Amino acid sequence: MNAQTQTRDVPVAHKLKTGAEFKATLDDGRAIWVNGKRIASVFEEPALAAGVDLVASMFDDQFKPEFADATTCIDPDSGAIVSRAWQVPRTIEDLADRRKLIEYTSLKTAGTFGRPPDLAPAIAVGLLAYLPTFKAKKSLIDGCAPDFAENIERYVAFGRDNNLTASESLTGPQNDRSSAKGSESSLLKVKNVEKGGIRISGAKTVGSISAQANEIFFTNLGGIRETPAEACIWASVPIASDGIKLISREMVSHPGADPFDHPIASLGEEADQFIVFDNVFVPTDRIFNLGDPTAMQYYGPVCVFAHWHVLTRLAVKAELFVGAGQLVLDVLGTGHIPAVQGMLGELIEYAQTLRAFIYAAEAKAKPTEGEVMAPDVGMLTAGRLYSIQHYPRIIHTLQELCGQGLVMRFGKAAFENPDIGHHLKDLLPGKGVSAEVKEQLMNFIWDMTSSSLAGRVALFENVNASPAPRLRERLYNEVKRDRFVEQVKTLARMP
Ligand SMILES: Cc1cc2nc3c(=O)[nH]c(=O)nc-3n(C[C@H](O)[C@H](O)[C@H](O)COP(=O)(O)OP(=O)(O)OC[C@H]3O[C@@H](n4cnc5c(N)ncnc54)[C@H](O)[C@@H]3O)c2cc1C
């Protein structure tokens, strides 16, 4: 695609898709099962379709002047307007610019989509950040010898030029964790090598948004159990590839609900998928590592941009919690109570702390060996650990601020019912607002903290990019403390 856009002063070539063009790409015969039934297309399941509509609206926003700066940038090579999702940050200023898109997609989904269209591209950019390392690596699988670095560069260009969306699944299906990794029947691995590529079989798991995206980007996370050579792979294939089956978890949102009742859950969801690979062909040019266990240790460095995305999204959501909390104080008239002010203070502390970690990670950013500007991993990991440890308490505090209003919600139809609506309107107004407006606020907070959608999101926040024990382990392994040790030795007059 190489069209002209009229939204800027001077028509400029662009490589952007409209929402309708994006939706057309999903009508590709992909194999999806929901509630045990094969569906003809992603548009057949209301929760998936609503989620696609939300993502499509992000594509349309790329053409609107008010969102152009957050969602698009100029490709330095071609001069065309491209999505910021595939932007390669070279400077600290570039990081701040790229963050605008994370903030935009986070606000658009109220932080409920952890894998919006700009998340998986951040992993491809992470591979690009270590191009010299991947250039030096050789395939250890006989008969297939891709140039990993060329493939990475070509893939980032392909994603950028096609305004591509991708999902990612790095983790493996849950089964007996005490067994040897290589003995798991679910482990995704190379079955055979053939002309032009390899065949892989096995499964990936919780590939959030994969039913609603173009591609799946995958690897097998290293972890403490040894990964056999035939499972050491980084690659990406189209979701509609022959042999891929997507098995959806049950839906948790309220597509089609009146936005009054469910302002967020009516937007649909990014559904998590169990992804079966049955003899799937991966072309040689889509392989970014093959057979080399040392490349699997690059999970941390390669995913640094994705983890920066995760923390930024949580900061945006934390700010929504502050806004919602302030509104609760306003409409309930509880803002004069010192204990209530203290509870809002907790929400503010959380939001400010997450922002501080993000700014610190960007301020301490350093160029990688591939000359990509990478946020500081120690700050990010500490921030991510703080964010997930405190998330349940923050949800609890926001719920507590709401009191009975969070559950005593009746819905638009009750307010419009001639027999009971007037009672609700007369007996339940807030401070300076009608009963309906008070309920709208409570409905928003319900969707964000207490609904089935919120339950899935809370689980997601806790483990989607490593649970707390693993983050502590990463801090131990990755944050240097020699300087502090020397300081103590000096003060303690130790040798
Ligand atoms: C809703 C949701 C969406 C997700 N979306 C994605 C996605 O899009 N892409 C993706 O790649 N992943 C995704 N994840 C998966 C996430 O990466 C994993 O859940 C996470 O890596 C933990 O692995 P596991 O669930 O297999 O836990 P298991 O390995 O089964 O372990 C269970 C628990 O044991 C503990 N544990 C296990 N091993 C260790 C260890 N070595 N050190 C410390 N503690 C340990 C942890 O508490 C862990 O939660 C998602 C998860 C959820 C819940």
From TrEMBL:
Cross-referenced InterPro entries: Acyl-CoA_Oxase/DH_mid-dom_sf, AcylCo_DH-like_C, AcylCoA_DH/oxidase_NM_dom_sf, HpaB/PvcC/4-BUDH, HpaB/PvcC/4-BUDH_C, HpaB/PvcC/4-BUDH_N
Domain of life: Bacteria
Keywords annotated in UniProt: FAD, Flavoprotein, Monooxygenase, Oxidoreductase
The keyword Transcription is annotated on this UniProt entry: no
Domain HpaB/PvcC/4-BUDH C-terminal: 305-492
Limits of the HpaB/PvcC/4-BUDH N-terminal domain: 18-288
Gene Ontology molecular function: any one: oxidoreductase activity, acting on the CH-CH group of donors
PANTHER family: 4-HYDROXYPHENYLACETATE 3-MONOOXYGENASE-RELATED
Protein name (record): 4-hydroxyphenylacetate 3-monooxygenase
